[in-house]
Amino acid sequence: MGVLDGKVVLITGAGGGIGRSHALSCAREGARVVVNDLGGTRDGTGAGSAMADLVVTELRELGAEAVANYDSVTDSAGCERMVATAICSWSASQASVTNSLSSGGGFIAPEGRISVNPLRGSGLGNWGMLSSPLVVSA
C-alpha cells in the first residue's frame, strides 16, 4: 500500500527530467497521475505531445493509471484544462507538483502551501519566466 493510493496528482513538466521522476515516484506510491508537459524546449519554445505521451506509456507499463495533458502553465485557461483533465478522468485532483520551464519547481499541497526553490543567481530579469508557471498554476 502506497502513501498516495487512490490520490490524483497533477504534475507539470512531467515529460522529462525532475518532473518525470516525480511522476514515477507518485505512481509507485499508488497515485493516479496527470502528466502535463507542453513538449517544448528548455527555453520555453515549441510544443508537442510526444514527451507526455511517452511518460504516460511508461507509467501504465508499471501498472499505474495515467493520462496526458499538453497545456501551458502560463495560460490560465490551460491550467483550468489541466485540472479538468484530472476531474474528468478520476473525479478529483488532490495535489499538484510544478516543475515547468526548469523553474526550480515547487509543491502545492491541497491546503495551498507552496514550497519553491528558485534558481540562484538568475537575477530579476528572469523573475517573470521563473515565477509565472508557479504563480499562474497556484
If you had to describe this structure to a student in words, what would you say it looks like?
With 138 residues, this protein is α/β, with parallel strands linked by helices. It has one domain: 3-Layer(aba) Sandwich (Rossmann fold), CATH 3.40.50.720. Helices cover 36% and strands 17% of the residues. It is built from 4 helices and 6 strands. The protein has helices spanning 17-28, 50-61, 76-90, 127-137, and strands at residues 8-12, 32-36, 66-69, 95-98, 106-108, 114-116. Helix 1 (17-28) links the parallel strand 1 and strand 2. The longest helix has 15 residues, at 76-90. The protein is globular. The model is unreliable at 102-131 and 133-138 (pLDDT under 50).
Structural descriptors:
138 residues; alpha/beta; Rossmann fold; six-stranded mixed β-sheet; 4 helices; 36% helix; globular
